[in-house]
Amino acid sequence: MEISLRHVRIALYRPSALPFLFIPLKRFSSQAQTLQWVDRRIGAPFCLALTFLRRLTEGAARRAPAEPPRTILFLKLAEQGSTVLAHEAIRLAVAKVGRENVYFLLFEENRFILDLLELVPRENVLTIRTKSPWTMATSAWRRLGEIRRRRFDACVDLEFFARFSAAIAWMTGARQRVGFHAYFGEGPYRGDLLTHRVLYNPHLHASQTFTSLVLALDLPPASLPTFPAVVPLSPPLPPFRPSEAEKDEVRRLLEGLGVPSGGRLVLLNANASDLLPLRKWDARNYVALARRILAEFPEVHIGFTGAPEEAERVAELLQAVDSPRALCLAGRTTLRQLLVAYGFAEILVTNDSGPAHFASLTPIDVVVLFGPETPLLFAAPGPRSHPLWAGLACSPCVNAYNNRQTACRDNVCMKVITVDQVLAAVTRIYRARTGEKTTDPRAVGAARG
Fold first, then answer.
1. What is the pLDDT of residues 140-181, one digit of tens each?
2. What's the whole-model pTM score?
3. For tag attachment on the chain, is the N or C end more exposed, with fewer CB atoms within 10 Å?
4. CATH code for the part of the protein at 244-448
């Protein structure tokens, strides 16, 4: 088969158009270790230099502006899952200044979930291109110029302790800059560039910590870190409502892959990429889990999901399962189509990653495997989220204070989660959803746990 440049362009933007053509694309923003190294080695001295400049231009005092903000810019470059958790913070900002006056700055590949939430107008979503280091730097510089021309009143930095986000917040020129500050804690040094320095509370759920940043805009800067308020729990997320045309499109895709109309579907997100290896559950476990679900429930089909760059490895898992009731969705759907597929499925099994949070917008039940991080802070809220976490003495080892870095090279916290445990959770949830009676003692044990 002859492949033209037009075919390549189609495959880049619509992977499902050419499922036989696998083109791995790796953005610079996906190289987590490299970005952390740059943030630590270059970001820290850069923040120190900007701090000296700030004190020369603004002085050391933190004065409250004369008027409340009329425009708010959110800054959350990476991690779409965290953007879902920031839903209530964004909603509060919209209530404060109006939807048309709320903006968001992020990496271009992460705008999908923001558009899906529909809290911020599409034209107010400002993206940074991330294909290469040079592209990222020049794109960020151009965006900063645009932001400074807009003269935002407030910038809310949703990154935990990233140095460059604090630097960007200051360079926006916003009169009010809110973000987390370590004070006497062990958090990474990120200069003194914020007007409202909020103490990060590791005992609050991430959604509450994000909300606290918006609430801090109502406090005098000099009063912080004292925060005389109880941050409310976030309300349920608004449901994702696809159109009938979108449902029909995904229904046809599933039927073409062997899932009959009205058939039962369980999805497995094996997360085969190299982005966060410590969060991975062994791929062989997913294969074993798929085989046992198929054996336990003859009416169920298993779908493996994943990004286009994971399609090749997911295909290997599918081959290992070796069942006509197993199918590969990796690289065959857009992210929006994937959420539609969640609406047709009963259960998603995934590690702690973006899909666990996207799925909370749909009716699917999600079994989430936690290891180096804790569900007490980062699990998606709601009754359909079912975290499994071993709670080892060394877990969680990744947190905001260490900038999500760890010396661990052996994710025992994920390895001790067994296929039996996950199968028991899947069995209990599946039978509850379908009205089947639970007689498996493993499932009963999981329900009690």
1. 999 999 999 999 999 999 999 899 999 999 999 999 999 999
2. 0.85
3. N
4. 3.40.50.2000
